[in-house]
Structure formats: structure tokens, C-alpha cells
Amino acid sequence: xxxxxxxxxxxxxxxxxxxxxxxxxxxxxxxxxxxxxxxxxxxxxxxxxxxxxxxxxxxxxxxxxxxxxxxxxxxxxxxxxxxxxxxxxxxxxxxxxxxxxxxxxxxxxxxxxxxxxxxxxxxxxxxxxxxxxxxxxxxxxxxxxxxxxxxxxxxxxxxxxxxxxxxxxxxxxxxxxxxxxxxxxxxxxxxxxxxxxxxxxxxxxxxxxxxxxxxxxxxxxxxxxxxxxxxxxxxxxxxxxxxxxxxxxxxxxxxxxxxxxxxxxxxxxxxxxxxxxxxxxxxxxxxxxxxxxxxxxxxxxxxxxxxxxxxxxxxxxxxxxxxxxxxxxxxxxxxxxxxxxxxxxxxxxxxxxxxxxxxxxxxxxxxxxxxxxxxxxxxxxxxxxxxxxxxxxxxxxxxxxxxxxxxxxxxxxxxxxxxxxxxxxxxxxxxxxxxxxxxxxxxxxxxxxxxxxxxxxxxxxxxxxxxxxxxxxxxxxxxxxxxxxxxxxxxxxxxxxxxxxxxxxxxxxxxxxxxxxxxxxxxxxxxxxxxxxxxxxxxxxxxxxxxxxxxxxxxxxxxxxxxxxxxxxxxxxxxxxxxxxxxxxxxxxxxxxxxxxxxxxxxxxxxxxxxxxxxxxxxxxxxxxxxxxxxxxxxxxxxxxxxxxxxxxxxxxxxxxxxxxxxxxxxxxxxxxxxxxxxxxxxxxxxxxxxxxxxxxxxxxxxxxxxxxxxxxxxxxxxxxxxxxxxxxxxxxxxxxxxxxxxxxxxxxxxxxxxxxxxxxxxxxxxxxxxxxxxxxxxxxxxxxxxxx
Amino acid sequence: xxxxxxxxxxxxxxxxxxxxxxxxxxxxxxxxxxxxxxxxxxxxxxxxxxxxxxxxxxxxxxxxxxxxxxxxxxxxxxxxxxxxxxxxxxxxxxxxxxxxxxxxxxxxxxxxxxxxxxxxxxxxxxxxxxxxxxxxxxxxxxxxxxxxxxxxxxxxxxxxxxxxxxxxxxxxxxxxxxxxxxxxxxxxxxxxxxxxxxxxxxxxxxxxxxxxxxxxxxxxxxxxxxxxxxxxxxxxxxxxxxxxxxxxxxxxxxxxxxxxxxxxxxxxxxxxxxxxxxxxxxxxxxxxxxxxxxxxxxxxxxxxxxxxxxxxxxxxxxxx
Lengths: 789, 320
Description:
Order of helices and strands of chain B: HEEEEEEEEEEEEEEEEEEEEEHEE
Low-confidence stretches of chain B: 1-8, 50-55
Helix content of chain A: under 10%
Radius of gyration of chain B: 24 Å
InterPro entries (chain A): Beta-barrel_TonB, Beta-barrel_TonB_sf, CarboxyPept-like_regulatory, Plug_dom, Plug_dom_sf, TonB-dep_rcpt-like, TonB_box_CS
Largest sheet of chain B: 13 strands, mixed
CATH topology of the largest domain in chain A: Maltoporin, Chain A
Membrane topology (chain A): Multi-pass membrane protein
Helix content of chain B: 10-25%
Protein name (chain A): TonB-dependent receptor
Number of domains of chain B: 2
Shape of chain B: globular
Strand content of chain A: over 45%
Radius of gyration of chain A: 28 Å
CATH architecture of the largest domain in chain A: Beta Barrel
Mean pLDDT of chain B: 84
Largest sheet of chain A: 22 strands, antiparallel, barrel
Mean pLDDT of chain A: 85
Structural class of chain B: mainly beta
Low-confidence stretches of chain A: 1-8, 23-29, 113-123
Oligomer: heterodimer
Structural class of chain A: mainly beta
Keywords (chain A): Cell outer membrane, Hydrolase, Membrane, Receptor, Signal, TonB box, Transmembrane, Transmembrane beta strand, Transport
Shape of chain A: globular
Number of helices of chain B: 2
CATH class of the largest domain in chain A: Mainly Beta
GO molecular function (chain A): hydrolase activity
């Protein structure tokens, strides 16, 4: 089962590196000068990620990296018209004679004349220009305009509206990308992995849109700089904080409120941003609970904070922090004393889960062609159940006291250091290379229990241990223009994992290419091999906090995948629309599932390896994406036709079965429209083939009172199709101190009874046996008031 | 107060909206089901009905039906049930024990042995069942070796709880010699015996069994639960449990008798029996959870459903 990588593979890696370096070196044959710098928002100083920067005269160009940095080397003494543009911002042009290296930072102001569509340069790198495919970024302002359940803007629910991304169950914030599982998404918040990105059992995501700057989802064709997961990378950057003046924004909604404050610590040198969100159903309910009868409640909160500091013109430091917590809690106090005896008891219990991340990043411009980012991150996800009971009893002639404590927890912690270098020797090459080391600490199930009577320990239990896995990776990639028509991103990632003396390695070639058929139409293809050294044990498939993260071990091998994709991308109608069509085929192996009958309560101690079985998966399909990013009316339409199957020797009698979220057809239509006088309208409509389910087909008695169900083939039945329309109207009012936006939204506007789950039962009105479906959300109106100052 | 009323109204409104979700019948095209015979039996080497065995100590023959069939599930009373050894020789014939009074049925589908055959550890047996209107079914299983117990000790103590004053409480320690390199399956049960070493009808259970989380599916050795030797690679399973059982039971003539001895049974299950019981337990556990993956119950019956398993029983009697 274990995969060995003989020397010939290493030789290939060396040859690949030489190939890339050879191209890069050849570029120095002609005398060139470099224009480099940043592209930033003029008002806030925020870096603009992915902004297009190109020479209007030669057509040579590049785009800003994740820190807003660009570098473009052009022939010496040429006259240059350097244009930069970004969606929603004005275009700026720099004219100069390139006699020496130039450092220039573009500060872009907002483009308030969107009615007139800028055809050429009103967007980021054009879809047909880039080699990247299967990659989508959603502007934050669009994200905030999408109608939301209970008014809570949700990053992940918006991403679910993109082709190739499935939504799981009704209202849930799970991500299922191109037939992959929920654990196969690398979700990065400022470079730190977030292991459980949901609140309230998956109904809301942990990301507070007010604190975010940029979101990018990579579904395939992964560049070599990404690794560690099979199916997608969701790269989220937090805002850096306004460098120029103190600003704030917030909102009050039905279930939660949030507030974001940002501003300069030292103008143009250092800034901060702090953003917090909390639900308040528990606070609203508290006055109606009698304390002497007990208190129960639930809340979640998030806190994002970030500092950034320009150490020098070439060095910048970022420190970002996130903490989030969900808590169900209850407290009961009982006093059953009478005239003879006294009995007093106090019970507390809680169910908590949440993430903490910390990220320290240092940007250094080593030269005008070489950019270094060094990142150190810490991430922890923990789920725990706590129970406490204290009781005191006294009676004539005696008394007793007892105390009982139980804590069950599972967690995963990551400590990571990585260095990423961007090297731009000339417009024909964009070389990235770097290395990363991660220490994962896993505690998949730990139990501490102590029972004390009258000071004497009656029962004590301590189970569970920690496993440490060390992961390291190096990568190199080059986005190389081989001709005017052909551009290739070629790279490789070499990664290894060491756990309990067992070493796994993986050499992962990554190739993506685009060929321009004409000015606006490109054919694209990509291949990526990926590996993943961690697994998520789940038997619900809906992202419950009880799901356990575990490492690959001697017994349980890593997950590995290969994905090929081909497609075409084109801008149409004078560049107002982008359309892309992609087909993909992905194979996965080493994916694990609980054996039939096992669940998380069996994983106390370190015996989880015996509870799982490994198998394979296949996913393939086609996606169509039509997007309009500019103008008074914008939005997109996505369609996915897909298949996703699994094969496990120990499940479903060894026969292939559809994945739980195998969805043949998936359609989403998203519309944003600016009306007059500050009014805005948005809507989404989604349609999806019903989720696959496993149903009992027959039953029998195995003993007089022992009914056994015979289930059919796994996931061989379908729920009803899912469709839903959401609407939102908002009115923006300008105030002397800022801006107020009132938003009314309708979730499930025509109140479709979408199936949440199915069960077998008999009707209230008849004895007829049927399957019944339960719907969760009917039409749900909500109102949100948000403000900016 | 007005503020609270407003909050209350808002809260109720929100909850009402959330709870408006409703259910509806969904038509599902379930393929038609052809009823099949079903079998459930655990062969054991005790030579008599082992203490604590209920349905499994007697053969049960039933029939399957489609899930949308509105009839009550039924047993089969007119089956021919035979046991064969590995050489094909019939070693036992079972007869239906059920009674139908017209008003109610007892023991319906239950079959008792007629020839007193005692299976032998290490031997394979095949049970064949035929009944009019059904395809015949059969299942084969091999009786496991009996567990070897090297040490057994019960240390009695005063009841830890005032409500347990009439109970027998203490710490049970056993050492089971486990065969290394082979997966073995066990269950430990304790019964009360009277002074004549007859059963008194009660089974011991663990003191303060619940620790707040249902660990019933864990593989840790515990009283009354099936466990494997996977957590005990050394070849010795040191079993310890604080147990409690009623101090007074009933004699075979129905009189109250004090418990004087403990019968500790170490049951070694074969894989068929272990898988059937574990998967049945898992199916039962997942019944209430619509999001859990389904769990099919282990089946080793050809042309039908159910399981034929085997258990070898090692008995240790401890004086109180």
C-alpha cells in the first residue's frame, strides 16, 4: 500500500528545476529595468490583491501578489505606459521612460462611474490571459450583497453558489468541492489553517465579512505553492486596517451584531483592525428563565484582530489573530431539603467548540524582482464536552459530599513556518518557490473523569493521548510565457510527513497551460497531484463539531489525488462578461470512513485506526460559469454536471456507491442590481439534484422482539430536488457622519419545502408506512441595519 | 417590563419562524421485496441453556418483508430446522415451541433442540432451514475455543450507596489468557447462584456504569459488553470491574433465596457472533440519528437473512 518514490522521481524533480531556472536565466540576455511596487486602495491603504499591472504599449503585464506587490521587468530605455486596474477602482496610468529601475506604488481610488463599463482594464488579470483555471475570487462587496439566511452574511454560503461547489444539507456551511469531502479543503485565514469553519452545527461560517479583504477559491489546477489538501484551497485574507484614518462599520441583525474598528496607529506606517461578532439569542432569552429552575443557552462569537507595520520601505510586518467559540451551556441547581434532611445539588454542563489562529507575517522586498514572505502560524481547533456535579446531603447523624467532573475533548493544533519567494525576472516568467514545515498535534479523543465522595476518589479515568506529525514541503513553480499564444504554469511540490516513525513522501507535479485561440478566447488544461496527511473522521457528513481530525499513521495511509481539467475561457460582449467551461476528472485514494457501526464514542483511547476503513473515490463532471463583474447589473450563473463515487472494500459489500453529496445537476444564478437613490437589489436562485440517501428496503425479526432493518445499497436513493430563491433589498442613506444601510431579505422566498432529512414512519392520519421528509426552513424574512463611519 | 415583552415577542416570533419547518410524505420507489426466511441462533458448548441467554439460546426462524409492507413482522412456525456437522451428518433436529391460542402467541418462531446434541469447540456446523413457500436457507459457523481464565477474584465490600444496602457489591478481577496474533472476542457476565449453585435470576451490573458519555461501543473490556482483544496485545487481559447485584433472588421453585455464590462466565464469541451483535448494536444506536451513516447488520445466511454464531463458555464459580 505504501508508495515509494525511487530515485528516478527525484531526478525528474531536479530536471524540472533546471528547466525552470534555465528559462529564467535566459531572460537576462537582454538589458532590462524593473518597475516594482504595490497597488493599494488610496483611501485605506489596503493592498489590492490580484490587480492587473501591464504595459499598454507592449501588452506585457503581471498581477499583484497576495500582498499587493508587483514587479515588471521591461526592456531598458523603452517608453512605458504602465496601467493598473482593479474591479471597482479607477484605472491609473504611469508614463515614463525606463532608464533605470523604478519603484512606484499605485494608490487607486474608487470608480464611481460603473454605468460606463471600462472595457479593457476594469478588472483583474483577464480570464483568458491567466494560466490558472478552476479559480474564482469573489469581491467582498458582492459577498456582502448576497441575500443571507437571517441576515448573516456568509462567505462559505456564497462560495456554494459557484460551480463545482456543493452545499451539503439545507442551510449548512459545508464545502464539498468537485466531489471531495469536507476535510479536503484547505481553508486559510491569513495563512493559518482553519479546521472547522462553521458555527451552530454548520449553519453559519466563522468568517466575518467585515474583517475580510480578499477571498479566492481554488478548485483544481493547484499551483505548486498550495498543498496539504486534495480538493480545494480557500485563501482568505483579512483586512490590514486603514492606514489613513479611523473608521468603523457594524451591523445589527436578528441573531447577531458585529462591529469593526480600524485605523492608523501611526499614519502611513502602522494600522490595526479589530472586528467582533456575537449572537444574542441567549441574552434575549435569559430574562425569561427562572434561575432557580436552571439556565440553558447558546451563543457563538468571533473576534478578528490584525496589526500591520511598515518597518522600512522594504519590510512590512503583519500580526493577525482570530478566535471563535460556540457554546451550549446549561446550569441547574436543585434544593430538595426538607425538615429532616437537606439535599443540595448543582449541575453544570457545556458543549464548546472553536478555532484559534495566530499568524505573523513578514514581507521583505529583497530586490525589485524578488519578494519574500515569511509566515509563522498557530492554529487550534478544539471540541469539548464538560459536565460537573456537586451535591451535599445531610441527615440526622450524618452528611456526605460528592463531586463529579467529566471532560471529553478532541483537538488539533498546528505550528507552521514557511517562506515564499516571488521572483519576476522578466514579463515572461513569474517564478515562485518556497518551503514549509508544519507540526500537527492531534488529540482525537481524550477523556478525564473524576468522581470524589467525601474527599475520597471513588473513580478516576484518564484516557487518550497525543500524536505528533511533522510535515514539510518545498515547491517551485514558474508562470512562463512560451509564446504570445502559449503560457504555462509548471511546477512541483515535494512533501513529506513523519508520524510515529513512519515516513510518507509525495512528489506532486503541477502543470497548467493556456493557449490563446484569439484575443478573447483561450483553451486551458491543468494537471495536479495532491496529497493530504490528515483525515477527518465523520459519520454524519454534515460537519458536526464531534468530527475528529486524525493523522495518517502506520496503519492509515495518507489521502492522495490526481486531477486533470480542460476548459475554455472567453470574455464576450466587449469584455463585460466572462464565460468559462471546464471539465474535470479526479481520482482519490486513501480516503477513510468509519466502518459500519463505529462512531466517535468508540475512539476514546488510540484505537480509532481500527474503526476506519480506507477506500477510493472518483469525481468527474463539467462546469459552466458566466459572470458579469461590472456595471449596474452584475452577477453570475453557474451550472455543474457532476458524478462522485466511492469504493470501500468493507462498505456496501465492496460495491461502488455514490458519495453522499453526489449531485448530478447544480445551478445557481446570482443577480446584483443598483437601483436609483441608494436602493440595491440582489437575488439568488439555486437548484440541485436531491442528496443521495440510504434507505431501508426490507426488515425481519432476529428473535421475537428484535427487528433488523435491511438497508439497500449505500446512497442509492435520492431526496427531492432542492431549489430556493432568496431576495434582498437594501437602501443606503448617506449621513453626515457616514452611511447607514438597511437591508430586508427573504430566505426561501417561495417557501419551498426542501428536504433536510428523511425517515421511515407512519402518518398521523393513517397506518400506512411511508418515507417522510423533513424540511427545515420555510420563508424566513430578516432585517439588518448596518452602518459605516 | 415593556422591554422584556418586546424581547419576548421578538424571540417567540423568531422561534416560530424556525419551527415552521414541516414534514411531508415523499414517494420513494422501493423495489419489490421477495420474502425470505431468516435465522438467528447462537451455538454454545454449555449443553444446556446458558444463564442469561434469551432469544439466542433457542433457534428463531422468521421471514422478511418489504419496508413499506404494513403487516406486522412475523415468525415462521412450520419450518424444518436441522443442524449438520462438517461431514454433512445431521446432528440435531429442532421443533417449533410456539403456542397459538387464538388470542395470543407465545414462543412463536422459537425452535427447541430434540436430540441434546452439544457442539464441540473448533468444529464447524451448518444449520439448514426449509419452509413451505420459501427458498431454503443455511448458515455455517465454527464454535470457538473456550477462553482460559488464570485468575478470578471477587473482593466484597460494603455497598457504596445507601440504596444498595440489600445488594452485593465488590470488585471483580479476572485474568483472561488471550491468544496473541489472533483477534478474539469476549464478553464477561456475572450471575448470582444460591447455596445449591442454582441460578437466582439476577445478573450483575457495573457500579456507576454511566460516566456521562455513552462508551458502550468502546472496545475496552467491561462487564456485560462485547469487546475484542485489540487493546490488550500482551496476551493477558486483566479485567477489573466494580460490580453489584441483588443479594436475594429466586429459586427454581419461586422462593426467595439468598445469593451465595457468583458464576462468572467468560464467553468467547466467534467472529460471526461478534459481528452480528456489534452491527445490531450499531444499527440500534443510529436509529434515532437521521444524519448518521446507516449500519447494516451482519448476515451469514445464504439465501436469507440473520446470523448463526458460536460461543464457548468458561465458567468460574466464586464463593461469597
